[in-house]
Specification:
Order of helices and strands: EEHHHHEHHEHH
Distance between the termini: 49 Å
Mean pLDDT: 93
Largest sheet: 2 strands, antiparallel
Number of strands: 4
Helix content: 40-55%
Oligomer: single chain
Amino acid sequence: TGSDADHDCIIEIGAILTTTDLHALGEFSVVVTPEPEGLGRLMQNTFVRNMHETNGLLPELLDQATPVLRPHTAATTLLAWAEGLGAQRGRTVLAGSGVGHFDRRFIARWMPQVDRFLRYWCIDIGVIRRSHDMWVGTEVSTANESKTHRALDDIRCHLEEARAFKSLWQASLEGSEV
């Protein structure tokens, strides 16, 4: 509903569990019922409200026919899904763009059981993208340009970026002498 983890709420959870080689094992997505304060903040924030009206999340959230979960139930469902695909407590790494300074704060605040499940460090593809652009001056992938700010759509973009960087690094290693 905004960017303040103390007052804003999670309204959608998406996850793609991968192997370390970035092979997708499965996808998870659920709309989450925000606290009344969080929904009020979303409705008062023109930028966030317009973004979620445009991407369809707000109508889905407000549609009484759409099943939505409370944060604790959504977190429990997410963990059961991840463990069912083989994810292990303390060995599962959070990855994506902005996950270190944005998503992780919300996970810790609203889904502490998920936070405790994850490794203490994360992979932030946004930091990698910005660093590469700063140091090399070229883009490796244009996937980030098609973000909708829907959980799974954005994750797919970040996964495509991660795969592009992985390929670039593998190619550079294969061409170098050790």
